[in-house]
Amino acid sequence: MNFVSKIYCRAFQTAFRLALPVLPYREPQIVNSCAGLKSIFEKEHVKSVLVVTDKGIVANGLLAPLEKVLTESGVKFTVYAGTQPNPTVENVETALELYRGNACNCLIAVGGGSSMDCAKAVGARVAYPKKTIGQMKGVLRILRRLPTLIAVPTTAGTGSEVTLAAIITDSEKQHKYALMSFPLIPHYAVLDASLTYSLPPHLTATTGMDALTHAVEAYIGRSTTKETRRLALEAVKLVFDNIEPACGNGKNHAARENMLHAAYKAGVAFSKSYVGYIHAVAHSLGGQYGTPHGLANAVIMPYVLEAYGKSVYKKLHTLGTVAGVCDGNDTDKIGAEKFIAAIKTLNKKIGIPAKLAGIRREDVPVMAKHAAKEANPLYPVPKLMTQNELAEFYAQCADWSN
User: Which pTM value belongs to this model?
Assistant: First the structure.
């Protein structure tokens, strides 16, 4: 990256860092179970709800606790279960029609980050009925209050229940829109570990590594605060201590609960301190191929951390110490290398591959362009990289053996 571009990126990031203390960040009110929503419905004068979810959630009966409290509260509800793993503009528009057609005044997202992102985008369209999703992409484009938004995570990883971001895929352009505005933060979040029991091991693994990615990128970036560093460290320890037990026994309540809290803490951390090139590359893969976000993050993470080199040695050493994979006797370089190696080992133990199938060489320039546009100048990465440098990550994580 040339000198002028570097100066511009760092100046842009510095402006955001200086503004952080006065930005209108808020955290959702935590509710311990769906039963606790009854008082929320009364407080918010909820009359009709659109539940945004996916077919898997419905098939597994995970809506039952919510439907019970809605019925008992006398609140009408409509279910939209068409959310895709990478929610699309079409998903948002179809759900919006249901919201309007049933005179809804509340959105409840049940599921992983996909359902929450879809619900956030529906809320944005309600707040701005004359704007398309594409017109609201980017930072601080949404300023109006959304309808009451309640997030009920059934996965522990995305942290979407506490973030100001929504990622929506434009299927026609094979590109992801990142909407990042404070009104997108849900007003309430239901953190109930029992709702994650039925999550299969593979999804437990990939969503859990998504939380780890959030914590790592928030910690190693250049826009951290004392609070975000503390939360990121706590999240890293929780993931390393609990992701294997959670994958091994879906009904291990303590492990599941700890993973929920890891996701929440990491979500707060990266909402304030942002992410980095791991996410930018992962988003481009999701937009191009529909690659699950957590899976992409998990596979890409070691390669990007290695590429950051000495700019992250000290911070990765600290993360490794907290994770229990190195100690203070190690040099920063050795500690960082041990932490990266531990991520690779953890991926292998929980069934995440070292490579991604389906990446086409001819698609790399376009994906790298999207990744560079997303990350630069916004993400306060420890080391700035160009589009060409980002293109190397696709080659590193691609399974081109055949």
Answer: 0.89
